[in-house]
Amino acid sequence: MKVIGLTGGTGSGKSVVSQCLREAGAAIIDADLIAHQIIKKGKPAYDELVAYFGEQILQEDGEIFRRKLGEIVFRDKEKLEFLNICTHKYIVQEIAEQIQETKEKNQSKLIIIDAPLLIEAGLNEICDAIWVVYAHEEVRARRVMQRDGITYETAKARIANQKSWEEYKSYAHEVIDNSDTLENVQKQVESLMKKYA
Question: If you classify domain 1-26+108-197 with CATH, what class do you get?
Answer without folding.
Answer: alpha beta
